[in-house]
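sanity check this fold:
=====
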Amino acid sequence: MESYREDTMLTTLVEFSKMYGAPICLVFFFIWRDWKREKVMTARIKEIEDYQRNKLEGLIEKTTEALKDNTRVMETFIAKVGK
């Protein structure tokens, strides 16, 4: 599928070059190339953010449980020491 897109892009660039000249063709090529790069980078960033979000959710749950346990122990300790 990717080679078809590349062939189509090459055909399109040749047609643009014939119609508008090389400078416009180059501008079009760089815009297309950068668009492809941005598309790939967006997917990578989303994957990394999802991974980090999943890791942080687990850590937050564990930390919350540890804080609850710590608070319960401290309340019990204070109640026994205060008597």
Summary: Residues 9 and 68 are 59 Å apart (CA to CA). The longest helix spans residues 22-81.
